[in-house]
Amino acid sequence: MSVTAKKALQMIAAAEAKAGEIGVPMVIAVVDQGGNLVAQLRQDDALLVSIDLAWNKAYTAVAAKMTTETLGSVSQPGGPLYGIHTADNNRIVIFGGGLPIEEDGKIIGGIGVSGGSVEQDITCAEAGLAAY
C-alpha cells in the first residue's frame, strides 16, 4: 500500500479541476506515508507561499494522522496540542487544506492544497482525495 505517482497525478487532476470550477489557482501536493513528496502542481498565478504550504499541509496530515483542520481545532490556546505548530521546524500547519490518504484503514499518504480561502482549499483537497 503506497501512493504511486499515477494515483498522485489522478488526485492532483481532480483537485485542479475543482480549483478551475471555483476560479482560484491552487498548489496541490501529494506525499507518501513518510511525508515525502510524490507529486506537486502549481497552477498558473497561484500564490508562491502556497508551494510550501501545500506540501506542509500534506505532510502534516500524515505526521499527525488527521486533517489539518482537525489539528487546528485541538491546537488553539488552552487546547491539548497547543504549540504543535512549532514542531518539525515549524512545518506543521494548523488550518484546513491537508487530508490524510487512507487505504484499508491505514494512512498511506496525504494531500495538501493551498491558494484560496481555507474553505476553498478544503473543497479542492476533498475533490482530490475522492479521486484516489
Tags for this model:
single chain, 132 residues, alpha+beta, Beta-Lactamase, 4-stranded antiparallel beta sheet, 5 helices, 20% strand, globular
Q: How many domain units? A: 1
Outline the low-pLDDT stretches. none
The gross shape turns out to be: globular
**CATH fold field value:** Beta-Lactamase
Distance between the termini: 12 Å
User: What does the main sheet amount to?
Assistant: 4 strands, antiparallel
Strand percentage lies at 15-25%
Spatial order of strands in the largest sheet: 2-1-4-3
Q: What oligomeric state is this?
A: single chain
Helix and strand composition category: alpha+beta
Rounded to the nearest angstrom, the radius of gyration is: 13 Å
- Kindly state the mean pLDDT as a whole number? 97
- Order of H and E elements: HEEHHHEEH
Count of extended strands: 4
Second rung of CATH, namely the architecture: 2-Layer Sandwich
What is the CATH first-level class name?
Alpha Beta
Percent in helix = 40-55%
Determine the CATH superfamily. Answer: Haem-degrading domain
Number of helices: 5
